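Q: What residues go here?
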């Protein structure tokens, strides 16, 4: 059957990210950033209407080029550059980067005219809201709360509205600092936190996390908007993992000391510690589990899979037997994109509750890189976040169909051990921490 380092590593002080290098002026980027707007012309940008990027990708290369060429020509009628400022008259296609980006930190300055409405798309997805918060015409949308919210998030969800009103008076320059890791988004407006590590919803398909990559777009929506100092840096995976580890880490305790298997039970002979990581020995397997049992909890960890690697996270495991069936579930840890797994059932790919609930694919880092994962277990519900993307959100009590019609008698377990279910591959785990939930 295919179920195919504290260490909590020393945490970098939160202030290392809360107060980054100051953005420079006159379109000259600070160290580590690059300017997307050169202050002189529209090099590196094209026009694009509000359009599902998946549909754009389906067009033939010729049709796609023709569409974007026409929209770029129209955009140039409404976008101009004057004295280092990028100006839009409120109309025309959105100005869109030629490049695509994944995890980023972005600095961007804007100034709007009275009654203006605009926004910033990242990964070609709407939108960080910008508007005249004093305009009564926007009152029905709660514009008085200010700019910076994730406008297209579901009503009542985190990030939909800004935490504070941070806009400067209309006609003055404002500065955004925006950080997006996976779907996790934090936004500062004029130095004030307005969105705090919220999940940015996928406007184009609410059932999916944010696309893993996409273009930056500046929205046209009525009223003049001016832009300058557009600086971006791509966040490397190791730094992104550390940022995710650091978020709301209070209450987490380490399950792994980085040097030994102290505190672990079960198939300890099938695992060893290598370079600060728990590693399943080649051609060995079985479940390595914690000494303690847990009911509701959140577990965080980093993992690294070799090509074709296969392992699993044992959830509420009773201490013996096949964790996929006798425990609440086994969450797959798998190199899902390896060719040998192309014919698996969707409920067997990475992050899935094995044989019961399928996780979204496409959010693993390239094979051999470290990934960050968080699993929350409450009652019969499971949430799995991979590299900042929620890839599984399910209630196992509602599952009635199983892979190969093979029931999972342990899925209703209320307590059990947490562990690693090895399948003979040297998958690595580190920075393993847990927080019990009331």
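A:
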């Amino acid at each position: 059957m295919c179920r195919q380092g504290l260490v909590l590593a020393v945490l970098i002080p939160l202030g290392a990210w809360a107060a980054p290098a100051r953005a420079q002026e006159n379109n000259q980027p600070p160290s580590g950033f690059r300017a997307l707007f050169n202050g002189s012309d529209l090099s590196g940008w094209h026009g694009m209407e509000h359009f599902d990027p998946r549909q754009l990708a389906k067009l033939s290369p010729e049709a796609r080029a023709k569409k974007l060429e026409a929209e770029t020509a129209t955009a140039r009628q409404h976008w101009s550059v004057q004295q280092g400022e990028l100006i839009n008259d409120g109309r025309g296609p959105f100005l869109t980067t030629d490049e695509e980006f994944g995890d980023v930190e972005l600095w961007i300055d804007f100034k709007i005219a009275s009654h203006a409405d605009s926004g910033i798309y990242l990964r070609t997805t709407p939108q960080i809201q910008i508007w005249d918060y004093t305009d009564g015409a926007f009152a029905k949308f709660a514009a008085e709360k200010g700019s910076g919210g994730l406008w297209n998030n579901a009503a009542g969800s985190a990030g939909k509205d800004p935490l504070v009103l941070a806009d400067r008076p209309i006609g003055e320059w404002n500065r955004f600092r925006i950080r997006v890791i996976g779907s996790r988004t934090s936004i500062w407006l004029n130095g004030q936190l307005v969105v705090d590590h919220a999940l940015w919803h996928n406007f184009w398909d609410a059932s999916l996390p944010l696309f893993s990559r996409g273009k930056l777009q500046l929205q046209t929506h009525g009223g003049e908007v001016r832009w300058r100092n557009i600086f971006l840096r791509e966040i490397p995976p190791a730094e992104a993992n550390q940022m995710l580890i650091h978020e709301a880490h209070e209450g987490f305790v380490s399950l792994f000391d980085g040097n030994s298997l102290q505190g672990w039970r079960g198939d300890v002979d099938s695992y060893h510690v290598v370079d600060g990581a728990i590693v399943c020995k080649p051609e060995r397997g079985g479940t390595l589990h914690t000494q303690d049992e847990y009911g509701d909890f959140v577990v965080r960890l980093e993992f690294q899979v070799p090509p074709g690697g296969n392992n699993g996270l044992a959830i509420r495991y009773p201490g013996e037997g096949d964790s996929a069936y006798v425990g609440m579930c086994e969450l797959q840890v798998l190199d899902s994109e390896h060719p040998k797994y192309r014919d698996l059932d969707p409920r067997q790919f990475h992050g899935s509750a094995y044989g019961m609930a399928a996780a979204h694919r496409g959010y693993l880092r390239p094979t051999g890189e470290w990934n960050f994962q968080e699993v929350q277990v409450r009652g019969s519900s499971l949430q799995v976040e991979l590299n900042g993307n929620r890839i599984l959100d399910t209630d196992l009590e509602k599952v009635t169909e199983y892979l190969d019609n093979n029931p999972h008698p342990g899925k209703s377990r209320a307590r059990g051990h947490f562990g690693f279910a090895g399948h003979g591959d040297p998958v690595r785990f580190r920075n393993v921490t847990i927080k019990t939930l009331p």
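A: Context that may help when evaluating the design: The mean pLDDT is 94. The helical segments are 15-18, 53-58, 61-75, 237-246, 323-326.
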